[in-house]
Amino acid sequence: MPINIPRKMPAREILEEEKIFIMDEDRAVTQDIRPLNILILNLMPEKQKTEVQLLRLLGNTPLQVNVSFLHMATHQSKTVSKTHLDEFYTTFSEVENKYFDGMIITGAPVEHLPFQEVTYWEELKEIMEWTKSRVTSTMHICWGAQAALYYHYGIDKYELKEKCSGIYEHELLYPKLKLVRGFDDVFLAPHSRNTSVSQLEIEEHPELLLVSNGEAGPFMIMSKDEKNIMLTGHLEYDATTLAEEYERDLNKGISIQPPENYFPNNDHTKKPLHAWRSHSYLLFSNWLNYYVYQETPYEWK
């Protein structure tokens, strides 16, 4: 089944070229089924790239998925046009009385700031509190995961001596968990962050389960009530995303090492390989199936 997105959304052309099954609203209303309603709070600077990455993964299941995009009313984006946001995004005040089967909160380039100094922190706190009663399951990515761990469970982030950037190996600690059904015991995932969270604090927290761990530290964390899933890395990334970030930082004059375990033979002139694609699709498929579709009520009260 397809994902349902607006007909004029730029991501549509890219997804159609990749043969991702998408549908517009005119056709969707003729389907005699109950689609899943997914809300994406996109905090990433290059919003259109993130749209494609997430829609690609959400469109790879037998489920029909209606996707809505959310942006912060208390923050003015400098990297995407107001026209794009006005046409394809909504704000929290417009959806706060609705229910959603699933939600994704992305990463954001604000990890150098304490949470309280992020301009939209109060608005994000309101949204995360709202998810407790209005969303069946929420997936948090990178800084979004750190924000969730801090807000919901009191686990703060800490600054790394050097940026964690590259492709890292992770080991499953609970391979029978539905979230990682079909995963290899050891798998790869991209990371790109300057902060991390404490493995010890996660393991000592009674409401949390550390699902996978590895070279880059805790990666996949889940609340035991299955409401919150936190990913400290970026399984949604394209093969070239880390290379683009590396070039961006170099052009800014930032002294930074090339992403680890990423370029073939550590040669940054060679095209990186997409070594985490299958697990990306598996994760999103498992989340949609086991934690959203099979848990959400057919009719919200």
From TrEMBL:
Residues at which substrate binds? K163, S192, R248
Provide the site residues for: Important for substrate specificity: S192
Alphabetized, the UniProt keywords read: Acyltransferase, Amino-acid biosynthesis, Cytoplasm, Methionine biosynthesis, Transferase
The keyword Transferase is assigned to this record = yes
Any Pfam family from its record, for instance, is HTS
- The EC code for this enzyme is 2.3.1.31
The subcellular localization recorded is: Cytoplasm
- Which reactions fall under this protein's catalytic activity? L-homoserine + acetyl-CoA = O-acetyl-L-homoserine + CoA
Does this entry carry the keyword Amino-acid biosynthesis? yes
Active site: residue positions = C142, H234, E236
Gene3D superfamilies registered for this protein in UniProt: 3.40.50.880
Positions of the record's site feature: Important for acyl-CoA specificity: E111
Q: In which pathway does it act?
A: Amino-acid biosynthesis; L-methionine biosynthesis via de novo pathway; O-acetyl-L-homoserine from L-homoserine: step 1/1
Instruction: Output the NCBIfam families linked to this UniProt entry.
Output: metA
Q: Which family does it belong to?
A: Belongs to the MetA family.
Q: Which HAMAP family match?
A: MetA_acyltransf
PANTHER family in the record: HOMOSERINE O-SUCCINYLTRANSFERASE
What function is annotated for this protein? Transfers an acetyl group from acetyl-CoA to L-homoserine, forming acetyl-L-homoserine.
What this protein is called in its record is: Homoserine O-acetyltransferase
Q: Which organism is it from?
A: Lederbergia ruris
Its organism's taxonomic lineage begins at: Bacteria, Bacillati, Bacillota, Bacilli, Bacillales
